[in-house]
Amino acid sequence: MVRYLDTSLPPLSLGFIALGFLVPALISLPVVLNSLPTPSKPKRKPGLKAAPEGPLKDRALDIYPEDIHGPGAYAELPLGKVKYWIIGPEDGARVTLIHGFSIPSFVFTDVAKHLVSQGFRVLLYDLYGRGYSDAPDTTYDGTLYITQVALLLQHVGWDKTYVAGLSMGGGITGAFAATFPNLVNGKIAVIASAGAMQTTFTISQRIMTSPLVVSSGVSGLLSKGVQARRFKAQKAGTPAAQSVELVGIQMALLPGYPWALASSVRYGPLRGEEESFAKVGASDIKVLMIWGTEDSTVPFRYTGVLQKLMPQAELVTVEGAEHDVTITHAEVVGAALAKFFS
């Protein structure tokens, strides 16, 4: 008979061996923890309310006063304070308006008034890094923006809402509806919508939107030059001209604004949301598109791109309107939204 040597250890011995490894690890744990950096939230930069006093801030408050839509309030969200306004009758159908890339809720001023006149309850707010909202030191991607909407809705106690977004706000709207369909009241509207732009992100754009260049202020100076040229091309004193002026003012006054724009160009929902739109297209969510025929920022041809992704989408064409259609044709946009959401 062949006999094998039993080299296994009794359970008690294995316990002592395990304890021998565990005790030194537990003893050294405080040392390891003390050597690690303390967890912290991303740093944030304040909005217009905290901007330094002076003629530029005075001009900002002339164009975009903090009570432009009513008293408003601030929601303290994990990544920073968000300025929002709720206007209209308390029992009105709820509509959330999401502005675009560079101009805060100012762009929806007259559209919101029209919706209120039709009995709607309207929520407006400033995206992170714009207007009166804080600018967290983070990546400005679709996840950041749709999470901001979801948390804000929770803060104000809205369980469902219609949603309308302009330009990049349209990309946010599509991504939000695809990710949180339970928070959408069955209908969304996208106005001159980004989100599926088929442009090439050039090497020069990568350089100009890099953190190093943005922090140096070079991209901000160039942006202000572009905005100044656009401003001269428009009639001074009009809301459209004021919106362009507001871009330059934010660039000068808000330390977090340049990175919010640059990061949004790199990572935000200006492009790459085709999957979100397609998901909405395969759902029961009804869609309205509103577009100006003379839009050179997100050209009218993108209506075809989005209609392929969302076959159920209705289209309202605004003849002669450019990208600032919510300002120049607020009555037309407001009436289209009121009809669709009712």
From TrEMBL:
Pfam family name, one: Abhydrolase_6
Transmembrane segments: 12-36
Signal peptide stretch: none
Gene Ontology, cellular component aspect: membrane
Keyword Zinc: no
GO molecular function terms noted in the UniProt entry: hydrolase activity
InterPro entries: AB_hydrolase_1, AB_hydrolase_fold, AB_hydrolase_sf
Domain AB hydrolase-1, first and last residues per copy: 97-333
Entry keyword set: Hydrolase, Membrane, Transmembrane, Transmembrane helix
Name of protein: Alpha/beta-hydrolase
Species for this entry: Sistotremastrum suecicum HHB10207 ss-3
